[in-house]
Design brief:
Shape: elongated
Largest sheet: 3 strands, antiparallel
Strand order of the largest sheet: 1-4-3
Strand content: 25-35%
Organism: Brugia malayi (Filarial nematode worm)
Radius of gyration: 15 Å
Order of helices and strands: EEEEEHH
Number of domains: 1
Number of helices: 2
InterPro entries: DUF7808
Structural class: alpha+beta
Number of strands: 5
Protein name: Bm726
Length: about 90
């Protein structure tokens, strides 16, 4: 989204049906500032991590947490159910 220095790159987070997604640990990277060069956003019911500027090249790992109204294990009782959900999401785009 955007172009040049204002460009943002979005990466889908696997938190289906989450009502809250949060960044759980500070990055300690001089190129990454929350809300300025990275953040979390919800689009069309899915959650995304976005990065921009020099933060795009940061090797730091993001630790993301998800909160659900219904327990994740109740919504997706086994791996096949979650993989089917994710595959349907990919086909939709």
């Amino acid at each position: 989204e955007g172009s040049g220095e204002n460009a943002k790159v979005f990466c889908a987070i696997v938190c289906p049906n989450a009502h809250l997604v949060f960044h759980s640990k500070s990055l300690s990277d001089k190129n990454c500032f929350k809300f300025i060069s990275y953040g979390l956003t919800q689009k069309d019911g899915d959650w995304y991590l976005w990065r921009s500027g020099k933060c795009l090249n940061s090797p730091k790992a993001f630790e993301i947490g998800c909160k659900f109204e219904d327990p994740f294990e109740k919504q997706f009782p086994d791996d096949n159910v979650i993989f089917k959900h994710l595959a349907a999401r990919v086909r939709a785009y």
